[in-house]
Amino acid sequence: MLNIVLFGPPGAGKGTQSEKIIEKYDLIHLSTGDIFRSNIKGETDLGNLAKSYMDKGQLVPDEVTIKLLESEVAKHPSAKGFIFDGFPRTSPQAEALDKFLDLRKTSITYMIALDVPEDELKTRLMKRAKTSGRADDADPKVIQHRIDTYNRETAPVKDFYAAQKKYYGILGLGTIDNIFTAICKVLDKA
Ligand code: ADP
Fold first, then answer.
1. What H or E segment, with its residue span, contains residue 98?
2. For ligand 1, atom 19, which residue shows the shortest CA distance?
3. How far is the CA of 109 from the centre of ligand 1 (A)?
4. Can you give the CATH number for the domain in which 60 is found?
5. This model's pTM is above 0.85
6. Mean pLDDT of 35-55
7. What's the rounded Cα separation, in Å, for the pair 75 and 71?
8. Residue 167 Cβ contacting ligand 1 at under 6 Å
9. Is the pLDDT of residue 190 over 80?
10. Which residue range is the domain that position 163 belongs to?
11. Is there an atom of ligand 1 within 6 Å of 146 CB?
12. Stretch 48-59: mean pLDDT, rounded?
């Protein structure tokens, strides 16, 4: 299996690159943000809970997020592999994912981390707010909170994969196609 963690701060381009990766490598795309948003739309209990955190730019609690992710993976028993987009976002999530994949006799192949300077992230998120309808993109205070949360709680997850020699950092600037080519160079080594 090819299992990828696609990593990076809000606005780094994870969603855009995921679309291209799943097409080329025939993987299942699991975006925790997308799953939460579809639950919000469907007004489920999970959606209501997630919304109370997301609108403020806070992380949804680990317990809820880990359970959700595991149930989504279990829905695809014959997948060739997965691309995890927006997960793991905390060290406990990374540990839980490793244990869970281990039980299924598989593991993460690579973490691909998109590096983008903070000013560029803010510009992209403000621009995306015009079309995404996402409340968390529209408010500069919420954007700053998401970036701060990323730096404090999520960025350390890099070290978890670096210790396993699975970490690959890629500059998330330039054209979408050039960034994709750089990602493919890593994935084609698998
Ligand atoms: P972005 O990376 O652009 O901030 P996402 O769509 O990945 O957007 O996530 C949106 C929001 O969903 C996050 O700010 C957070 O509140 C919640 N979320 C997504 N993934 C996770 C996760 N793994 N753990 C906790 N909260 C999450």
1. helix 91-103
2. 33
3. 22
4. 3.40.50.300
5. yes
6. 96
7. 7
8. no
9. no
10. 2-187
11. yes
12. 96
